Each structure stands twice: as structure tokens, then as C-alpha cells.
Amino acid sequence: MAIEQIKIGFDNFSYVIYCPVTKKAAIVDPGLDSAKILQFIASKKLTLEYIIITHYHSDHSSDSKKIKSLFPQAKIIASEADGKKLALKPDIVISDGNKLTFGKILVDFLITPGHTPGGICIIVNNEALLTGDTLFIGDCGRTDLPGGNLIQMYTSLHEKIMNLPDELIVYPGHDYGEKPFDSLGNQKYTNKTLKAKTLKEFSTIP
Ligand SMILES: [Fe+2]
Q1: Which residue from 82, 90, 151, 164 has the fewest beta carbons nearer than 10 Å?
Q2: What is the distance in A from the centroid of ligand 1 to the CA of 22?
Q3: Domain CATH for 182
Q4: In what order do the strands lie in the sheet with 75-79?
């Protein structure tokens, strides 16, 4: 299993998840300029099978149309709530707990609302946790944008993310932290939004 973290635009991260044996691949969050993503896929001679959208915001999804036109066989994956807001209808609508396999890659989907109503996080081979705009290194996603909800974010972080294994490596949707990725265990220990013990405490974080 391999994950390539690709910085796009000012501070967004896109990802390519691929199986080095079968060369099957998925792109996660092709927002903004996808040229670097396409270059990477070509350089590794990967076969693009899926385009996974963690949430509908344009900086995470806007180039999915262009990529789909280049790779018509690739299937767009999103949650039901956020999929409705995409320019292209998803080919696969996922629910909490759904799984996907390609090559030697196993993806587990978690629905983690709070930043958007249908935001998702994905676990790859029980090693990596791609968090979109739900969890950043040192912070969490905004809840004050349309569709955001502070209570849902607290629940997603504290009833889902906090219950996942410390060994997972968190790969966020933006480069907002002091490092581009980190172990979930270290984030549980240092991230103010995960350290908050109550909703009240969470709601007062600046
Ligand atoms: Fe976002």
C-alpha cells in the first residue's frame, strides 16, 4: 500500500492511494489544479479506478469533472448528503461503515459530519486515516460555514475519531499544522479539538 500526499493550490492536500502490485489507484480530493496528480499517476503507470471526494467544497472536488473526462472508467465516490452538491453525480454513494477494495488496498469509510453534512474520513489498510476537512494536524475543520454543525463535529471527533487506533497516520485535507501528517495517537495527545473533554469545552476553543 502506498499513499502520495500532493500539495495543490495554496494549502490543500490531494492524495493518490495505490497498490504497487496491481497499479490500481484512487485519487482523493482532486480540487483546484490536478496537473500534479495526473503527472504522478502517469509517472507510476497507475490505473485510476476511483475518485473519492471527502466533502463537496470546490477546493476538494472541482477537478473531478476533468479527471472523469480523462478516465471515464473511474468511479466517483461520495456520501449521499455531500454527493448531492457535486457538479457530477457520484457513481457510488457510500454510507458509514462501507468498505471498498482494489488491488491490495482496503478502504473503510466513516461518515463524519460537522464541517459539511456528509463529510467522510477514510481508513486505508488500517494504517492511514485521510480526514478531509474533519481533522487537521492541531485543529479541526470549520463548523461556521453553510452546512457546518459544531455538535456534529464534536460527535464525529469524540465518538468516531477518538475511538480509532493510535497507530493510524492522519493525512489531513489542508496543510494547516506544524507538520503535513502525524500519528493519531500524537494528535489525541496534542490536538486541542481532540483534547477537549466536553462539548462545552470544545465550543470555547478559539
Ligand atoms: Fe472544506
Answers
A1: 151
A2: 32
A3: 3.60.15.10
A4: 2-8, 12-18, 24-28, 47-52, 75-79, 92-94
Q: Could you give the number of structural domains in the chain?
A: 1
Question: Tens of pLDDT along 174-197?
Answer: 999 999 999 999 999 999 999 999
Does position 1 have pLDDT exceeding 80, yes or no? no
- Calculate how far, in angstroms, residue 55's C-alpha sits from the geometric centre of ligand 1: 7
Q: In this structure, are residues 136 and 177 in contact, taking their beta carbons and an 8 Å threshold?
A: yes
d(CA 133, ligand 1 centre) in Å: 5
pLDDT tens, position by position, 66-76: 999 999 999 99
As given in the structure block, the three cell numbers for residue 42 are 502517469
